[in-house]
Amino acid sequence: MIAFEVCSFYYCLLKWTKNEKTENSFSGHKENGITALYIGLMLVSVFEAIGFHMLLISRNKNLALLLLAFHTYLLINLIGQLKAIIYRNHTILSQKIVLRYGLFETIEIPIHSILSIDKFEGDYEKSPELLKCALLGKLEPHNISLELKDSQSFKLPFGITKNSKKVLFYIDNANDFIEETKLKIEEIQSLKNV
């Protein structure tokens, strides 16, 4: 939980340059409207803070200051999460897929543990076997479903750990990501057969 907060402040206040993009890096923020969603939430937070502050300042200054501090903290967290989504790219390496979604801990999925990877749009039902890489849950879109052969343990924000067999996430170039992943799976299978 402390690490999440430190990262949130770091990305909000200190991080101003993107990580270098490599050949096998994929972004997950350009085509899905996530930027607009977070900016909308930030604007709502600002307008709500102004409204509450104006209403409470004449009645209870301590409560007005407490709500102002809360809204400032919320704004820092939203900005930090959005910048982390923009600055951290997903990567396909020779032996694993590395998913870096916002302030989530980096998720590493070994290529040999992947059962299937497909495009997936639409709604889903919550289950203990499903991990959706989205801090805001169903508000954030997804377009890729990755199914694993066995359950894997994933570390989420705030120290939460979840065992899942299926992962939903968003990639801008979904077709390229799926093709590249399937090529890596085939390479590993052909090496096992040799």
Mean pLDDT: 85
Uncertain segments of ≥5 residues (pLDDT<50)? none
Largest sheet: 4 strands, antiparallel
What structural class should be given to the helix and strand makeup? alpha+beta
Radius of gyration: 19 Å
Order of helices and strands: HEHHEEEEEEEH
- Annotation field: number of helices: 4
Secondary structure: number of strands: 8
- Given the C-alpha coordinates, what overall shape results? elongated
Q: What is the structure about, briefly put?
A:
The chain has 194 residues and is an alpha+beta fold. 43% of the residues lie in helices and 22% in strands.
Structural commentary:
This protein is of the alpha+beta class and 194 residues long. It is 43% helix and 22% strand. The protein has four helices and eight strands. It has helices spanning 2-14, 34-57, 61-87, 174-193, and strands spanning 25-26, 90-92, 96-99, 107-110, 114-119, 130-132, 144-155, 161-169. A four-stranded antiparallel sheet has the order 1-2-3-4, covered by helices on one side. A hairpin with a 5-residue loop joins strand 7 (144-155) and strand 8 (161-169). Helix 1 crosses helix 3 (61-87) and helix 2 runs antiparallel to helix 3. It is elongated, with a radius of gyration of 19 Å. The relative contact order is 0.16. The mean pLDDT is 85.
